[in-house]
Design brief:
alpha+beta; Thermophilic metalloprotease-like; two-stranded parallel sheet; 3 helices; 2 strands
Length: 82
C-alpha cells in the first residue's frame, strides 16, 4: 500500500474480513430482512466497516441504508465553545 493511500483503501483480504463480519452482524445480530431500511450511526474512524455493512445490507435485500457519522474531534470543539 502506498503511503498516500493509507486510510483510504483497504487491502483486499481486509475487505473480505470486514464483509464476513458485516454479514454475521446483519444475519445474527440485526436479523435484517429483505425490504427493510437500515440506519447506521458510527464514528468516522469506522467508515470502512460501515461501507462493508452497507454493501452486505444491499446484497441481503435492504431497501435503504443511511449512514450517519460522528466525529469526536468536532464534538469536542463544539463542547469547548458552548
Amino acid at each position: 500500500m502506498v503511503a498516500s493511500d493509507r486510510g483510504h483503501r483497504q487491502l483486499p483480504e481486509r475487505e473480505d474480513e470486514l464483509e464476513e463480519y458485516a454479514r454475521l452482524a446483519l444475519r445474527v445480530g440485526v436479523n435484517l430482512e429483505e425490504g427493510e431500511d437500515m440506519t447506521l450511526l458510527s464514528d468516522v474512524e469506522h467508515a470502512s466497516l460501515v461501507r462493508a455493512i452497507t454493501r452486505v445490507a444491499y446484497a441481503e435485500g435492504a431497501s435503504r441504508v443511511d449512514p450517519y457519522y460522528v466525529d469526536v474531534y468536532v464534538r469536542r470543539e463544539k463542547a469547548a465553545h458552548i
